[in-house]
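Entry 14. Structure prediction run on the chain below.
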Amino acid sequence: MTTSPITRAGIVAKHGLAASGHLDRLVSWLNERGIAAVFETETASLAGTRPATGTWSREELPDHVDLIIVLGGDGTLLSMATRIVRTGRDVPMLGVNFGSLGFLTETRIDELYETLESVLAGTAAYDVRALLSAEAYRSRELFDSRVVLNDVVFTKAALSRIIELAVSVSTGLVTKVKADGLIVASATGSTAYNLAAGGPIVHPRVDALVLTPIAPHTLTHRPVVIPGSETVEVRPLPDAGAEDIYVTYDGQSGYPLQKGDSIRICKHAHTLRLVKAPARSYFEVLREKLKWGER
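Output returned:
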């Protein structure tokens, strides 16, 4: 894959992250190589150095840069992923973790500049991740549309009873779920909430969707892996109290459903490019995060 030259790098730091020294050093490093450093608005307030090129909001930033460097955790990277897709631009992201290794922010802070050197030299490796499109319908009219990297999650409202959902694909009804909730995850999202709920780990290069019930009422309800080409439709059952069901997108935002609502989820037309950490495979990330082989 040919990549465009990097002339402007956007920088986004996790809210509340004590990163002033790292930000100043990063701006200097980029400027020494003729690259303009552009801060996300709230990130600018964390830094001692303010870039001459100004700042942009998270929504606007992808339109003005060739690379986005995320300093923080997976949640910070997720918040930028959908914003990149909305612009329609192929802007790669480099996720840098300040704490424990992330599934998405897999580059450690001490590896940052080595990784950036490979990006500028055109030798960096990229992970291409599938995204999901979710459309919400009310009385057969589209009322909301989202793009997610990890998952769409249906859960019960606080103190509500078990929720009941009908799950269908293009070939017909898959199942009716009685559970605390349901997760529809991408392969990337298989290591997020899906994993905590007992779902399978799916390698990100596998073209698949995962349907995982959360604490199902019937223990024979198990996670199901389906082709990524399918469209999944999730509907509250007519008499199941739809107002007790809440839908959440990538754990970032959501809303309660109403009777007759339906959510259709399929693979999005665009993908997301993530800069890979040097000499670290997907399975090495799994081993470290999940502590495989440790006693």
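The mean pLDDT is 89.
Filed with the rest of this week's runs.
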